[in-house]
Design goal:
The protein has 22 helices and twelve strands. By secondary structure, the chain is of the alpha/beta class. The chain folds into two domains: about 50-375, ABC transporter transmembrane region fold, CATH 1.20.1560.10; about 440-465 and about 480-650, Rossmann fold (3-Layer(aba) Sandwich), CATH 3.40.50. The protein has a six-stranded mixed β-sheet, with helices on both faces. Strands 4-3-6-7 form a four-stranded antiparallel β-sheet, covered by helices on one side. Strands 1-2 form a two-stranded antiparallel sheet. A hairpin with a 2-residue loop joins β11 (about 615-620) and β12. α4 (about 65-95) runs antiparallel to α12, α7 (about 160-205) packs antiparallel against α12 and α21 (about 630-635) packs across α22 (about 640-650). It starts with a helix and ends in a 5-residue tail after the last helix. The protein binds adenosine-5'-triphosphate (ATP). Adenosine-5'-triphosphate binds near residues 449, 451, 452 and 455. InterPro entries: AAA+_ATPase, ABC1_TM_dom, ABC1_TM_sf, ABC_transporter-like_ATP-bd, P-loop_NTPase, Type_1_exporter.
Amino acid sequence: MNDAGDQSGRDAEDHPASNPEDRPASRAGGRPGSRASLGVRGGLPVAGPAQTRKAAVRLVRLDGRAFGAMLVLNGLAAVAGLGAPWLLGRIVDEVKAGASAGTVDRLALAILGCAVVQLLLARYASYVGHRFGERTLARIREQFTERALAMPASVVERAGTGDLTTRGTTDVAAVGTTLRDAGPDVAIASVQALFILAAVFVLDPLLGACGVIGLSGIWFASRWYLRRALGAYLEEGAASSALAEELAATTTGARTVQALRLEHRRLMACRRTVEESRRARTRTLFLRSVLFPVVDVSYAIPVAAVLLVGGALTMRDPSAMTLGTVVASALYLRQLSEPLNIVLQRLEELQSSGAAFARVEGLGAAPGTTPAGPASKGPTSEDPVSKDPASEGQGRISGGAAAGGSSVPVDDRLEVSRASYAYDGGPDVLHEVELSVRPGERLAIVGPSGAGKTTLGRLLAGMDAPRTGSVAVGGVPVADLAPGLLRERVVLVTQEHHVFLGTVRDNLQIAAPEATDADLRAALAAVGADWFDELPDGLDTDLRHGPHHPDGARAQQLALARVVLADPHTLILDEATALLDPRTARHTERALAAVLEGRTVIAIAHRLQTAHDADRVAVMRDGRLTELGTHEELVAAGGAYASLWRSWHGDHAN
Ligand SMILES: Nc1ncnc2c1ncn2[C@@H]1O[C@H](COP(=O)(O)OP(=O)(O)OP(=O)(O)O)[C@@H](O)[C@H]1O
């Protein structure tokens, strides 16, 4: 199992790129509305308009019956709503013709009936609409989670967790509100508006034309608004992400900030992103402040036009148009303001949630994830990548990634060939590393701090691809393997280990859902987790909080037990036993080695005892592999390793 929690923690602490001072003030990039800005923002991609529309249509299709039912019910409610103005027009004409009070009462009763039917239908339609919204939101959430989990850790690291968090919280919530409220409201209101306009045309085409011309101001204002809104709202979303990123970086790196006296610079950087966010929000506010006043004025124009034109025609020739028709038309157009208001007010929400949806959908285009996860077919927790071998490895950012997308390694041999690597366009930190690790070998990598051991470990684990050269398993570049395939082959274990909410069993079965209690106990025993026997409820002991919450060493043993259960053929231990006391560490390493008999173990070691116990030792210095051989060979060679060994082992060196 490639435990992302395990992998990322150390990097966040140690690597300069994770240092708040080294982060760019804003990863947002792009200017509002520009083409480029629709492509990649905040480090992660943003779906383009066509892609977003396609995704929306796909979601609607998945619950097509509910969506269709909502539209039909709304249509019926709108028809019932048309009754009242027409009946009122009839009352005017009947009164003018000297009808009895009984006729007027019957017509008034019919108006009441129409209102009740409309109310009931609209209620039911919104119930169906809300259910549709909730189900669709659940699908979006599941798809988001699956895509986020399928993303290679290196992509998340580069994009920054702030962006991912904002998309998973603020953006998904915005889409949810739209699906629950704005979406159904706009659907209802649009159907009503269409029916009302049609009714005016049926009553009198000329008055209908007056209404449409009178409404044209709204059309122009809306077009003006819509052209600018998407870019402006995308900009606003990106600014929010950058702000979240900046604040998160500052707070998580607070100690570093204080230690290096960077408070002032951090404050300045935060002020810049706050200012960018304010500017983005002011722009969307400006767009709204133009749209709404224009719309308010525009509502009165069609009503006035119908009354003026209709009144003049009735006075000139009462047989051409009755007063009832004019009254009914004016009432219809007056009634039109209500659904149009809803559409226009919600338009803003639709725009901002459209931008939010584009950002949520953009995750599907992130390197290393599949374009459409299985969640789109309904709630499921399957791994989208492993379900779709044809798209394995698609779109990785790493160099030369496209090639072996669906290739399966022919064997378990790891080959590093003239691999050089640089972080984000910086200088090379690995130089033409050449290394071949045979299956079952135990290799220790040693060297001073900053020599490139961790970086080499990341390349071997497929978290990144080399800038030049190759790192391959069984002939396939490791970074090209789909996450599912990669997990079965190489697992990287670092110092940081995450304890998931739940019991011991929950924490272990993540790696092997089918494992029996006996398997779980055996895995714990294999990593020397003796403390497990003292837990009151055994595998069911709740680890969340309280006395049984595991400390660092126990959390590490749990993570190692997960690895035992995941059973990969190659294990890369990056100081994986560093938190254990030396006796427990040795015990764990031995136990682990016994369990992983016949598997490859690459240990990035600070303790030279680990190197002594390994089959071969690789010594690194300044990004180069300087010595490679068995412990005895290297000691005999009298190079850097020999002097390291002598100084570590003192007079007892051999
Ligand atoms: N995320 C990063 N961005 C930029 N440079 C990095 C990053 N991580 C490491 N480096 C640089 O790459 C070089 C190799 O670092 P690496 O962590 O691989 O060395 P190491 O031998 O594992 O060191 P240590 O034993 O201290 O962990 C160092 O110069 C380091 O500053």
